[in-house]
Amino acid sequence: MNLKSALLPAALLACFLPVVSAAQQSQPKPLEHSYRLTYTITVTDAGKRTGVQHFTMTISAPTNRGTLKIGEKIPVATGSYNTDGKGNGAQTQFTYLDVGLNINATLTEEPNGVQLVSKLEQSSVAPIPAKILDVSEPIIRQMVLENTSVVAQGKPVVIGSLDLPDTTRHSDIEVTVEQMP
């Protein structure tokens, strides 16, 4: 075995060591406590409060994550074909789109509070569908908020405020993190 063939594996190993150690460092440390998260979505229309919704989940070790999903599946025609080759017996293919609310949260304990990574996705079907070749297809409206915040326990924090396009509606999203006994 010559010197070049002996040095190549060592050089490759040295190149990958920093990548492995950086990946290991990015893994969140398991939580020492369990937490209750309450997301509050307040909707106003033309400045008047029209609704308040509260969504609560518990997050604990070892995953440090929580997910909440509420909604429906909307059928959308994606194609059609003839079963007999003569134009009779057409079959239509459908796919189903999820609409509703998805909340994903990840917690990490920090010396000055709790780091919260949130992703909220809210989607709905618009009241007027689109016409494509004389076929009515639903229009899906979507609102996404994704951020990272350090929050103090027990104190509500507004993590986002959104105006809904083509409407006079507005949503405020607030979260409260509480350590569980």
Write a brief structural summary.
The protein is mainly beta and 181 residues long. The chain has one helix at residues 3-26; strands at residues 35-45, 48-59, 65-82, 90-110, 113-125, 130-132, 135-137, 140-151, 157-163, 169-179.
Overall residue-averaged pLDDT value: 83
Instruction: Give the overall shape, derived from the CA principal axes.
Output: elongated
Overall radius of gyration: 25 Å
Q: What ranges have pLDDT less than 50 throughout 5 or more consecutive residues? A: 3-16, 18-25
Strand content: over 45%
How many strand units?
A: 10
* SS-derived structural category: mainly beta
Number of domains: 1
State the helical fraction. Answer: 10-25%
How does this structure look, described?
The chain has 181 residues and is mostly beta strands. It has one domain (31-179). Helices cover 13% and strands 61% of the residues. It has one helix and ten strands, in the order H-E-E-E-E-E-E-E-E-E-E. A hairpin with a 2-residue loop joins strand 1 and strand 2.
Any key phrases for this structure?
13% helix, 181 residues, 4-stranded antiparallel β-sheet, mainly beta, elongated
List the helices and strands and how they pair.
Elements: H1 3-26, E1 35-45, E2 48-59, E3 65-82, E4 90-110, E5 113-125, E6 130-132, E7 135-137, E8 140-151, E9 157-163, E10 169-179
Antiparallel strand pairs: 1-2, 1-10, 3-4, 4-5, 5-8, 6-7, 9-10
